[in-house]
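quick one, two chains, predict together pls
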Amino acid sequence: MKIARSAAAFALAALALTACAPPTSNNAASSSDEKSGTIRVWLFSEVNQDPKSAVVKAAVSDFEASHSGVKVDVQYIPVDSRAERFKAAFNDPSSAPDVAEFGNTDLASYVASGGLSDMTADIKAWDESKDLDSKILATTDVGGKNYGVPWYVGVRALYYRADLLQKLGLGAPKTLADVETVARAVRAANPDMLGISVGGAAQFSAMPYLWANGGNIATKKGDTFVSGLDSAESRDGISAYARLLKNDICPPQTCAEFGGNASVQQFIAGKSAMTIGGDFNYKAVAASAVKDKFAVVPVPGNTAGSIAPAFAGGNNLGVFNSSKHHTLAAEFVELLAGKKFQQKMFDAMGNLPTFSDVQKSVAASNPQLDPFIKTLAAGTNFVPVTETWSTIDAQGIFTGMYQKIVTGKADVNTATADAAAAMNKVFGSK
Amino acid sequence: MTALASAKAGTNGANRKQDRKQNRKPTTARMPRRRSQGKRSLEPWFYLAPAFIVLIALLGYPIFQLINVSLYDYRQAQVSGKAPLQFTGLENYQKLFADPEFWSVLGNTVLFAGACVVLTLLVGTLLAVLATRLRPWVRTALFVVSLGAWATPAVTGSAVWLFLFDPTLGLVNKALASVGLTQFNGYSWTYDKWSAFGLVASEVVWCSFPFVLVTVYAGIQAISTEVIEAARLDGASMPRIARSIMLPMLRPIVMVVTIQSIIWNFKIFSQIYIMTNGGGIAGQNLVLNVYGYQQAFAASLYGLGSALGVIMTTLLMIITLIYLRILKRTGEVL
């Protein structure tokens, strides 16, 4: 009796499980393309919000003036909770905006979720698009289609304390090997300072080392990616970066946990002689106690005079797949991410433009940008454009590899082989 | 009859009373004789209905969906309808069981939770015993201070502890260095796996011992003074009284506190997430809950994350059932 009853309950439960699949939403592209109504826009809120709001407001009133019957409704969303907001918008298209700002490393996973609309035709028909930096436009390319317009870009360069180096009779490092020797020399002379503050979790500081040595994170093979972290070139680059996280330069006890921001904070606090920082860090460094003592050069490559390929971070503007106003939305994107407003955004926020000609003109009037523009011009690189990268990132496979090496938990060969295997597993799981 | 025996008889007497009550139950149920058989068996369900409905809505449905989702390949693309939903059966579980990281995280969790439970109970019970012997105003001060720790939100507590243990600016390292232990100058407490776990465990004990303190103290107060006095008159030493009289009488309370502590500490999230920055260097401080969050939400592998959730729920249910079993066998009633 009892057994029969529990068997029945079990059968019922099994039936219920197989009968109701977990909920999914229908996120098909909208078929309508209305020419009037309200365009909803999501942009990231900033610590320093007012200048951004002012520029956006100007763009909105321009757009509304040239499009009768169209209203633009801008909402600012916090960067930290963007993942939840975007996922919610993909799951419930009726609450989704038409246009959104998003980080370029998030793009591939948004495309895989079916959230973003193909903008290839819009970009092709747009007269300004020919001046877009092709390397940066490539970061929006998934399977030969562009899913956004690069709005601004961020690259990292080498910040160093000119005063400390000069005291030791040293110039700015000319090669990556130079960076290591200079860092060691400065720390030997100033034992309470870090030779260069880099971090085990600062993946974007580590990438130039990888790429300058001819290594790669992963390369596309047919439909999937294959990790190149275990190649001889990659191992050289990874070892070169890991050598910085040693007691005589940046002790792993202190530096293994650093991300990019924490590394730069050490430099700002006057506790390190060098760091790898972004153009977006410049303002903070220039306002700190070391403001009269530092200089910036591009991160050098392996030979004197060369520049290591930098990671091209940045944000895009894109159109949601569920938008009922694709044409209008794309026009708004082209206005706000166009040359005129990129220039205005640079003036207001210091965001580096994505048009080669605008980059040149802002560099001419702002000499402090020179190392960053030179880095951009030398050619940048990017993480694998696949939705699986966000999984790899969340699982910390790439940064975990560096941390295992610098903490002595694994040698370079083992750590890179493990990381490559773990990455390949994720690449293959899609 | 010695006092010890009478104390035992006292608890036995209570048990007997309990037994009698239980024996009486069927008679009370038989009271409304005129009602039909069917109605009678439905009646208790009717009274239980409100509780059942709430439990099913708040507990049953989420657990059902958790199990359900864990049997699918369910990622963001599937949720938003871009990729077809696929029933994969136990594949998520197989993936987890084949992953050495899962086993090391499970091991970490068991060790870490176990240490937290033992330490919390030890500190809480010792302080409870101490509290019974303190002057009233000192006792009040002790309670106020520990309730303060208890009332501190986990997030705030973790952040404050991190400040205290900061390698360069933290008070603890400065104090240690100032008494001559210069190796603590710039010492990172979160660098080594076990020192990081130790740091988090201390924070966990700090914010959860007050519950044990208050509950056990209340339990000690509830032991009638006559029993203890009688034992003392019979010449029982204090340790003997503690072992043979107080502990048996406190057992139900200690059991409840232990189960609660196990469940709480097994599910630790905020402290690890904040103090080790999401799982420590190269994931060395991951525990199941943080690992589950990382897989389910950060990496959007909802199916895999749900499988982890199911495993965790099952483990906790088993632990709870074992304890309930032990309780039942020893005749204690919760």
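The two ends of chain B are 29 Å apart (CA to CA).
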